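Section 5.1 Outputs to date
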Amino acid sequence: MGGSGPVGFDLDMTLINSRPAILASFAETSRETGTAIDLDAVDRRLGVKLDDELAFWFPPDRVAAAAEIYRRHYLRLAEPMTTVLPGAHEALAAVQAAGQRAVIITAKHPVSARPSLQAAGLAPDELFTLVHGPEKAAVLRRLKAVAYVGDTPPDMAAAVQADARAVGVATGSFTADDLAGAGAEVVLDSLAAFPAWYRSA
């Protein structure tokens, strides 16, 4: 595949293990607002936009305020609690070594995405934030991306919609079967297997 076009990557649970920081931030938001939030339910939906997740727990007129509270805690917790997932650096490097752009396309807010990348030591060629599901497909089409790598069924669906190769990594909340059922052409156990796949694809 080398030499054929940009490759998009999801961020949360694809390149970085942000689960501890995300769940801790939701726990702090719950504590501060006095609103019960089921962290297991949040965990099952990891990857959606923050406002969409908060809408499960807060009425519409309180979502924006809850998001501000969440982000305040996330910015404090991101650096000490975020770790890079195995193979993430090597995956981006494999694309760049082929002379192509490694692009991160995430539902995360830019305020939250940048400290997460800094904590993990990741430097993509371009970063697109606040996009999820079909919005990711639109970005992939605009970039003429040849593949999109992610850990959720909506990531796989976005790749399929954009006529990009859907590459699943079973490092998030979804199984290999979940990802294959959503259109993944290949499902990797982790990004450690990505460079070999990329070179041979």
